[in-house]
Specification:
The structure holds 2 protein chains of 2 kinds. Chain A is mainly alpha-helical. Chain A folds into 2 domains: about 55 residues, no CATH class; about 350 residues, Cytochrome-c3 Hydrogenase, chain B (Orthogonal Bundle). Chain A has 19 helices and 8 strands. Chain A has a 3-stranded antiparallel β-sheet with strand order 1-2-3. A 3-stranded antiparallel β-sheet of chain A has the order 6-7-8. In chain A, helix 5 runs antiparallel to helix 6 and helix 7 runs antiparallel to helix 8. The radius of gyration of chain B is 17 Å and the shape is elongated. Chain B is of the alpha/beta class. The N and C termini of chain B lie far apart (about 50 Å). Chain B has a domain of about 100 residues: Beta Polymerase, domain 2, CATH 3.30.460.80. Classes of the chains: A mainly alpha, B alpha/beta. Chains A and B meet through helix 3, helix 10, strand 6, strand 7 and strand 8 of A and strand 3 and helix 3 of B.
């Protein structure tokens, strides 16, 4: 324990004073509506929340330490386990940072498939948000409808990568492998059915007066506060800031796709709900455009010292076999340098700071998780609201504790 | 992303403001890194936020260069603008004997948890931080886990009891 900290007042001690009219409620870590192992220390006056202190770290597994002991290509599987609702987004930001350090050019087909898979993953992630968020507020049937759609996407991801929750599909220099036969047809089938599902959600939730009165005017955060607290993604756009990294810091060719960025003004739970619901339709549009662009071609960069060779090449060519052995046994050296790369994940700006010392293992990998930053604004949103509304606010922030605690 | 000319203009403006503020400028891989003396970080951030539109602190993270290095620690500030969408990295170097740096949580509220995390995992102390406690690890944890001389599996098995 460092000396500087011992002298500071502990916030939890402050809570215990003057308990005659107020009470302290420990919400979580085992509480279904905290979406994982989040604990909230709530100071209540009746049902009114006076103070809320998030307590995190229950799921801390030291991933950033582990990255320093793994080769670059081994780190990809660790990223799957952070935001486990959006693993392809985590894969993408990690491999893109490494590709930036290596200076790799990614072939067109791999770029299109990356966009396609990431947008499917965004839909799947939003489906979990919608299902669990509605479940928290008592709308149980929405959960089943939403998870049915998510199941279809997980099946698609499984078909492409072999993993449902932990795909590790994007590799440094391209993809693990090309899409399987018949994949396009299956995605089109999903796309044909999806608008109908969205209309079902609109009927079930959006037009529901109980839903509206539970969400409108709850958990308001102003535009200035949202920027000050570093909110990103749908939470920021619900407060009236028109910012989307897919358009403003484009990557993997997002600037060539035609999509809109939904923005709402009020900054309450209802606005965040509307932004995500409209984003689902935009993601649907992007997936369709990406499907139309799929042309045959290579899915791996032409960098034999970094990208694993095809099995077929290894049987025929001596140098492919040598490269394969060296990549697996020793890894590849990444030039010295540091990068910060950020993408628009389903929850906001997912950034990675990667520093290389010239060897096969990174010197430092730091993830800027959108959940970690967005959760920080929870006290501001929930103080002055009712206990039951805190549940609605947590649902609208769409946090994943695997990413917060890393 | 690759257009760093605009970013270097910001650095020139910073230099014009106060020549002592910019210790070193690095332009690599499409990103600009400005090394700032630790006494100046608060002033530099305030100017960049109010006069140059860097209204969002996207990320703050520390790094350990290893126990044999001096300065040993670095703190990286990744600034972002919601208006002109440019990114700038500020870097502060700290020695092991005196790992203190002024907090920026009074400039951006988001820095609060980032600084707590950096303190927790690396032991960098942010002066005048409103609530510098451990955030990810338990409050009675011994040592700073992300330091290079801290073993991957810890010194001994950690018990919650």
């Amino acid at each position: 324990m460092s000396t500087a900290v011992e002298n500071l007042p502990n916030q939890f001690d402050v809570l215990d004073e003057n308990l005659d009219s107020q009470m302290t409620l420990s919400m979580g870590p085992q509480h279904p509506s905290t979406h994982g192992v989040l604990r909230l220390d709530l100071r209540l006056d009746g049902e009114l929340v006076i103070k809320a202190i998030p307590d995190i770290g229950y799921l801390h597994t030291g991933m950033e330490k582990l990255f320093e002991y793994k080769k670059y290509q081994q780190g990809i599987v660790i990223t799957d386990r952070m935001d486990y609702l959006n693993p392809l987004g985590n894969n993408l930001v990690y491999v893109m940072a490494a590709e930036k350090l290596l200076g790799l050019e990614i072939p067109e087909r791999a770029q299109v498939i990356r966009v396609l898979m990431c947008e499917l993953q965004r839909i799947a992630s939003h489906m979990v948000w919608l299902g669990t968020g509605a479940l928290d507020l008592g709308a149980m049937s929405v959960f089943f409808f939403a998870f049915r759609q998510r199941e279809k996407i997980l099946n698609l991801i499984e078909a492409a990568s072999g993993g449902r929750m932990t795909p590790s599909y994007f590799r440094i220099g391209g993809l693990m492998m090309d899409l399987p036969a018949g994949f396009e047809r299956r995605v089109r089938q999903f796309l044909d059915d999806f608008p109908e599902a969205l209309d079902t959600f609109d009927t079930l939730v959006t037009g529901n007066t109980i839903w509206q009165s539970r969400t409108m005017g709850i958990g308001v955060i102003s535009r200035e506060d949202a920027i000050d607290f570093g909110l990103t993604g749908p939470c920021l756009r619900a407060s009236g800031v028109d910012l989307d990294l897919r358009r403003d810091n484009p990557y993997t060719g997002y600037e060539t796709y035609d999509f809109e960025i939904p923005v709402e003004k009020d900054g309450d739970v209802w606005s965040r709900f509307l932004v995500r619901m409209r984003e689902l339709r935009e993601s649907w549009k992007i997936v369709r455009q990406a499907l139309d662009r799929l042309k045959p071609g290579p899915t791996k960069a032409d960098a034999p010292k970094v990208v694993l060779p095809d099995r077929d090449d290894m049987r025929k060519h001596m140098d492919s076999l040598i490269h394969h052995f060296l990549i697996v046994a020793e890894g590849f050296n990444v030039p010295e340098g540091e990068v910060y790369h950020a993408i628009e994940a389903s929850k906001g700006e997912l950034g990675v700071y990667m520093k290389s010392n010239g060897g096969p293992k990174p010197e430092r990998v730091h993830f800027r998780g959108p959940s970690f930053v967005n959760l920080q604004s929870l006290p501001l949103m929930s103080e002055g609201e009712m206990v039951a509304d805190v549940v609605a606010i947590i649902g609208s922030l769409d946090i994943v504790l695997g990413e917060i605690d890393r | 992303m690759a257009d760093t000319a605009v970013l270097l203009e910001f650095v020139e403006k910073l230099k014009a403001e106060n020549a002592d503020w910019v210790a070193d400028v690095k332009d690599a891989l499409g990103e600009v890194t400005v090394t700032v003396p630790r006494e100046a970080i608060s002033g530099v951030c305030t100017v960049l936020k109010t006069a140059h539109g860097f209204d969002m602190l996207a990320d703050l993270c520390g790094a350990d260069r290893g126990p044999e290095e001096d300065p040993r620690f670095e703190v990286n500030y990744h600034l972002f603008s919601t208006t002109h969408h440019k990114r700038l990295r500020l870097k502060v170097l700290l020695s092991e004997d005196d790992p203190h740096v002024e907090t920026v949580s009074s400039i951006w509220k988001t820095a609060d948890w980032h600084e707590r995390e950096t303190f927790d995992l690396l032991g960098v102390i942010f002066d005048n931080h409103p609530d510098l406690r451990r955030i990810l690890l338990p409050s009675d944890f011994d040592g700073h886990a992300l330091r290079k001389d801290y073993p991957l599996r810890g010194y001994e098995p950690y018990s919650l009891s």
